[in-house]
Amino acid sequence: MATPPLDICALPLAGMNLVEAAAGTGKTRTIAALYLRTVLQTEIQVRNILVVTYTHAATRELRERVRDLLLQAVGVFQHGDAGEDALLNHLAAIHPDSELAVKRLRRAIADFDEAAIFTIHGFCQRVLAENAFEGAQPFESELLTDERQFVCEVVDDFWRRNIYPANVLWVDWLQANGVDRPETLLNGLTNVTGKPYLHIAPLPEPKLPKILEHELQSCFQKLADDWSAQRDSVEKILLEDDRLNRNRYRVSSVAVWITQMDQLLKRSRPDFMALREFTRFDRFQASVISDRRSVKKGHAPPTHPFFESCEDFAECLENLEAIYQQRYRIFQRELYQYVVIELPRRKAERGALGYDDLLTRLQTALRSPHSGSLVEKLRSDYQVALIDEFQDTDPVQYDIFRKIYHGSDCPVFLVGDPKQAIYSFRGADVFTYLYARQDTTKQFSLEQNWRSVPQLVHAVNLLFERRADLPAFLLDEIDFSPAQPAPKQLPELTESGLAAPALTIWPLSREDDDNNKPIAKHRAGSLCVAATTTEITRLLALPAKIGEEPLHRSDIAVLVRTHSQARIVETAMREAGIASVRHSQESVYQTHEAVELERVLIAILEPNREARVRAALLTDFWGMDAASLQSFSSLELAWDARLAGFHHYHELWRTHGFMRMFREWTAVEGVYPRLLSFEDGDRRLTNLLQLAELIHGQERHCAGLNNLVTWFSEAMTRPPVRDDPSLLRLESDEDRVQIVTVHGSKGLQYPVVFLPFSWSGGLQAAGSEHCIFHDISQGNAATVDFGSVDFEQHLAQACREELAENLRLFYVALTRARCRCYLAWGAVNDAATSAMAWLLHRSLDVVQDDFITALQTRFRAITDPEIFDTLERLAERSEGAIQVIEPSFEPNGLTTSDVVSKRPMAAREVDRKIDQTWRLTSFSALSTGHNTELPDYDHAQQRVLYDGERPDVFTFPRGARAGTCLHQVFEELDFSSPDADHRNAVIERVLKTHGYEAKWQDVVAQLVDRVLHVPLDPHGKLRLVDIQQSQRVDEMEFYYPFAAHNPQVLKSAIQASADDAHIKSAIQQIELGSTAGFMHGFIDLVFEAAGRYYLVDYKSNFLGTNQDDYRPGLLKEVMEREHYVLQYLIYTVALHRYLKHRIPDYHYEEHFGGVYYLFLRGMNPALDNQCGVYYDRPSQALIGPLERLLGSAI
Questions:
Q1: SS3 of 884-939
Q2: How far apart are CA 1194 and CA 1190, in angstroms?
Q3: Which of 52, 14, 124, 48 is nearest to 408 (CA)?
Q4: CA 707 centroid distance within chain
Q5: pLDDT per residue as tens digits for the range 318-328
Q6: Fewer C-beta neighbours within 10 Å, C or N terminus of the chain?
Q7: Is the dihedral of CA 930, 180, 198, 373 positive or negative?
Q8: Residue 546's beta-bridge partner residues?
Q9: What is the pLDDT of residue 1014?
Q10: pTM, 2 dp
Q11: Cis bond leading into 543, ω under 30°?
Q12: Considering only 79-83, 402-406, 826-830, which range has the smallest mean pLDDT?
């Protein structure tokens, strides 16, 4: 039955009412009108009229619109005629007492600061604060804008509980499948946290893997034993047997497989990662070798016991992986359940509340057996409820309002449009709206469109009409009723005085008419964006007019789905010379300016580290390039002055705060004009200023410069969510084309709208490990499925719901336009799952249970002529409202920059394989497989001194910051200087730089004194205190070519050449990564004494609380455990190569003195070199071959 239209003047102010307001039909005006009627026709005061919406911006707009209407009404009741405002004229005509009306209106305006107009979270927060006992609300609590810290803590705890004690095979399997650290588990929580109403689809009972784990280990051991005994015979068969089909068993491929089998079976247990990489393991299985494709025609396949062992192992592996896959689904469910229970508990422990907690706490209070008094109080406090944007509600939010108002006499109006429900990613649930619709006593609709011109209304009606007896919005419960144009004449867009069709569709053609291959998305995007800039240029140059006013840039909006699309459009606009502004929900912490500002702050934090300063100077803030920096740094006086400037900024920051330093830095270095010289200079400068404000605001919460920079770096790594201050600001409010996401455009309108990515399809749910869907058998209850027996059916339902939301999103995009809209359509890759594919190409042969697959099949077969024919027939039926016209890329001399050619450019075909192993590597990458330069100090968390503990070298803080601090002290000190005051001044300054208290100054001074005076050699002749500045180089950076190698061969070569059992043992324990390119690193100190050169590495590792923990025997264990032996071999090769090119008649045995690893906390002159000092001098028999090995391919 059709929903009756709303008569705002005759509508009774009673009962539970639903008002469905289509786009542009005056939803906000309707709420304001209901508010006005409540004020005029009842004694209810403004503080008792509850208005709820879902964003702060909408709250501000509603407050302004309601107040404006109240003010207009006062004028009407005082002076009579309201002009064309039918509502006000009618209310004035029917009200029996004008004086009473004016009195009520004036009181409402006077009290309007008390108006109860809230966001949903603001309403819950107010209720909980005013009813703390009933809501079990602590009197003091912190409202979190970002809960991720708590979520990460809970996930970390779950990881420790479940991974640390787990079977090693299970852990290996998880790592091989990408679950290698707690952070990866966070991805599994996407869209499921903050939804306590979710049901969980039941999972099958898990099978215990223990027996299969044992079987797999046994099969693996047998395989390894067989390989050890029979490797040669297996290799001979695979390489030489004439019966094998050499197209399948190429000799070159077999050689690689043999090596991979060597690597796999050298381990003590199955390695799932190695098995993933060993994609041709099956070529060793008996079943594959006996396959007719593996042998030549007419020949019997070769046999071997090892092939049967591989078959047994593969079967065991498949069985265990099936159980692990099932176990992983249960693992995900347990993670979700653990977070649901543990996250609220931890927040409660710390007196913190998230936004979702406000809702759940109020819901819990209203569901309490003793909630009667609270319900009555809320009905008394809020005697009328007007709920805006009700399509964006969720089960918890609706349950709150239902508990308060269901069964009462209070007037309640739920105003929304299910066709505009587009916020499921924020938790909105359109099925809750549909459920609430059944609860309401009366339902009304708003169908007159006051936003768009009649032609555009007609065009949208045609697109969304019911076709082939299938609903436009896919769900039968969401019907589309054609909107009616408003009787009021709206201004039209005209070109040279003539009106044009309101909806323009650009057809996209394949490059080759004979080729049915879909258009690549990047090509479609380039074409449509180019067409958009060309058309905008044309309209502005005419100029087109809206009514009698010329079209301005700010009248035009380009709507996109994603931020990446917005950036593409922004770049194209800039290149076309069109001023534009991008509205974004991106974080300023994720911008290029944040990255560069971090480099500057680090340089100012550590001005003595010239590498940091150089990195800062290469940012756009200074504008140097590599050549100018090299030239500048060669000028000693100028370079010293530049370094002094960084020291000055550091001191200014330390003594007067960040903002004082920032202002002087930007003024002195001319940062603002330099940024503004870029094409996107406004954007860059806006980002920089916003970042400065955020850092300034955080400064009072961070003790010390180092902590502030650390906070900034963490904010860049994990930008806060729901944090309005960190969202990108508009760089300008000038006359510019608006670039907005469709979600961001909700509630807005623009005279001209472009949708260059209207063909965009693809369903995110299709590739998910879990899915959220609405279970029809459970009354459309929102349900999460982590892998039930019905997962495929549930995933298909989730995909249908996603496509349905994409249709609603497309409807929102189209209905933002007032005068004209442009969109594009064609056979683009993935377009089969787009909104337009469903709207234009659905038909009766699409099976309801699997219509997405059917639609994809149908779309793959569709030709360009069929698409054009569909569009032309739509245009014919539109009676001139729609035009189908080829997109134009010709500028006609109207643009100020080069225009995209009609023929799209294409990248040259890549005809060679890029070697992915060639890179800049380091000791860390070689020893751990991670391409990072790990610090030379322990990673322990910083300790806090407890009462009674005295500061000393063992209680000095641990961790990265402490290590960096001590390294810098030794780097800046003149070892041989007797000036104790200068030494203490350096220590004091460095400690302050790194945020340490003054109480540590004496401790570090004592540590430094001990280290400098410890005799490093058995004879007591070699001490750091005797080394002059001219005899040392600090932080010696090195690069040298590093050839591709087999890690096992490298280890074997080192062990064969080393004559030291300690080195052999240490290298044997390391799992080397495979890489090639350039070896890179820093040697803490290189010094010369008596014609010999030594390298030194400072270690701040905490090994224990007394000197005995730093004895030579224990240091050897540490050197092996931390892989430092490999590190100093790499350093030795670097120094050896350096000295060869610097010293005439260089000889390793004569000139290389050795390696010292100084464990600073344990060094004591009284104990000579027997405590905290590790020394080695690798033999030339090792270093010579190692140098040649690293520099030549193996």
A1: ECCCCCCCCCCCCCCCCCCCCCCCCCCCCCCCCCEEEECHHHHHHCCCCCCCCCCC
A2: 9
A3: 14
A4: 24
A5: 999 999 999 99
A6: N
A7: negative
A8: 493, 549
A9: 95
A10: 0.71
A11: yes
A12: 79-83
